[in-house]
Amino acid sequence: MIESQLNGRMLVSDPRDREIFNTQLLYFTCSSLSEDGERVYMISDKTGSPNVIVRDLVTGEETYLTDNHKGILKSYVYFDGTPGEGLGKASVCLDYKREVVYYIQDNMIYKTERSGNRKILAQLAQVPENRVTAFTHISGDGKRLCVPMTDGRCLEFDPVTEGTGLDRRPAYDIDGRVQQEHLSSYLCVYDTENGTLLYEKEIPLCWITHVQFHPLDSELIMYNHEWASFDCGIRRIWIYDHRLDQLYPVRTEGKDTLGNTKGYERKAGDWVCHEMWSDDGSSIIYHGGYENGPAMVGKYELASERYWEIALPDDYNAYGHFTMDHEGNLVCDGYFKYPWEIKAVRENSTDNGPDPHKKDGEYISKVIPNWNDGSLTWIPLCKHKSDWLGQDAHPHPIYSHRGDSVFFNSRSGKTVNVYCVSAYTLAHQSK
Questions:
Q1: With contact defined as beta carbons under 8 Å apart, do 176 and 249 qualify?
Q2: Between the CA atoms of 7, 9, 13 and 19, what dihedral angle is there, to the nearest 10 degrees?
Q3: DSSP state of 412
Q4: CA distance linking residue 341 with residue 339, whole number of Å
Q5: Picking from 13-27, 141-155, 267-281, which range would have the lowest pLDDT averaged per residue?
Q6: In sequence order, what E strands does 178-254 have?
Q7: Torsion angle of C-alpha atoms 64, 66, 72, 74, degrees rounded to 10
Q8: Most distant CA pair in the chain: distance in Å?
Q9: Which of the residue ranges 112-116, 338-342, 398-402 has the most confident prediction, judged by mean pLDDT?
Q10: What single DSSP character describes residue 19?
C-alpha cells in the first residue's frame, strides 16, 4: 500500500487498522529488524493492551510474542502506566542477530523468541521493589541484558492530578527531585541464559533512562542523565567501564572541536541528547543545541578524545532525532525545511522536555555528514507529518541493515502507524 501523503509504505496487515489500532517500532537504541531484513518487530495494541508482534515482510504474517492484557507498566516516558503491572513498553529490546526479544511484564524480566510455529518464553529475573525501569539494551554478543533502574520515588506521583500533557508526565522537575532527595539509578546487568544478576552498579544523584552496550565490548556501557536540571551539555552522556569500575563523561567543555565552522564552544549550558554508538564502537554521535545558539549534531571519538560538531542553519529549529546506518550515514526526522517553505501551524507537542526546539518537523531525511569540513548534505526522502504528540508518535527513524530503506512511526490521523520509505529515493538535495 502506498500512502501518497507520506510517500511511504504502511506496515499494517489491514488498512482499516490504521484508524483503530496503534502500532510502533521498538525504541531506536535497538534495531526493530531481523538481520536479514525480512521481519520487523513492533509494539501494537490490537488486543486492547500493548503487545510485541513480529511481521514477516514477505508474507505479511504476524505473530504475537507476548500475551499482555494488563495495559502499560509505569516507567520512564509511560508515566501514567500502572505500577508493577502491564507491559513495559520502554523495556522491549530486540537481539536482532538471534531474534530474541527481551521485555518486562508485571515487573518480571522475560525473553521470548519464535522457533518455527512455537513461541519459546523464559522468565529471567524480577525487578526489585520500589524501582522504576526505562529503555533496556542487549550486548552485541547476546549474552548480557542491561536494565536501567531508578529509585521509585523518582516517579512517585499521581498522574491524574499532578501530571501534565498527553503523557501525564510529572509537573515537578524529576532530576531536581533526584538531586534534592539523593536518589540513585542502577545499571543492572543480567545473564541472558539463566537470568543471573551479573552485577549492579549504583550511580548516585542520577536518573538513567537510556543504556547502550559498546557494540564490541560489553564491559563498557553508555548511559545518560535524563532531563538534566543543570549542566545538560556535560552531564547528559556518560560511560561506565565495568573492568575499572569507573565512570566518565563523554562531552566536556572546551574549544577544540573539529569541523565546527561557526566557532561555538562546548559549554555546560548546551542541550545534548540521543547518543548512539557507531557500529565499531569507535565513536558516539549525539545531537542538541548550543546555549543561545543553533541546533547541532556531534561526534566524539573515544581513542583520540576528539569532538566534531556541525551547527545547523538557524532556521533548522524543528526538533528531531539522528540515527546512523552501518556506513555512517545519518537519518533524521526533524530540522530540515526548504528555504521557501512555510511550515503549517500546529499544536506543539504536549510532552515538552528541556529541549529548546519545537516538535514540528515534517520530513524524513537522509543526512550525509562530512565531519572534517563541517557540512551536512540533506536528502529529504518523504514527509512523515507526524503530530509528535507523545513519545509513541515520535518518528524515530531507523535504517534497514542494508541501508536501502528507512522505517519510522507517524501519527498524521487518529493512530500511530509504522511506515517504510526507500533510502534511495531521488529527491532535492541541499546543504
A1: no
A2: -20
A3: S
A4: 6
A5: 13-27
A6: 184-191, 197-204, 211-213, 220-224, 237-241, 246-249
A7: -140
A8: 58
A9: 398-402
A10: G
Number of Cβ within a 10 Å radius of residue 118:
8
Residue 119 near residue 63 (C-beta atoms within 8 A):
yes
Instruction: Tell which residue, 274, 217, 225, has the closest CA to residue 391.
Output: 274
Using one digit for the tens of pLDDT, what is the confidence trace for 207-221?
A: 999 999 999 999 999
Pair 235, 249: CB distance under 8 Å: yes
pLDDT in tens, 237-257: 999 999 999 999 999 999 989
Q: Does the pLDDT at position 303 exceed 80? A: yes
Q: How far is CA 394 from the centre of its chain?
A: 9
Contacts for 121-130: CB closer than 8 Å, 24+ residues apart? 122/195, 123/195, 124/190, 124/192, 124/194, 124/195, 125/190, 125/195, 125/197
Give 167's pLDDT tier (boundaries 50, 70, 90): confident
**Rounded Cα distance, 312 and 294, in Å:** 6
- Cα–Cα distance for residue pair 132/152, rounded to 1 Å: 5
Which position has the grid cell 535497538?
30
The grid coordinates of residue 88 equal: 513495559
Q: What is the pTM of this model?
A: 0.93
For residue 112 the three cell numbers come to: 521470548
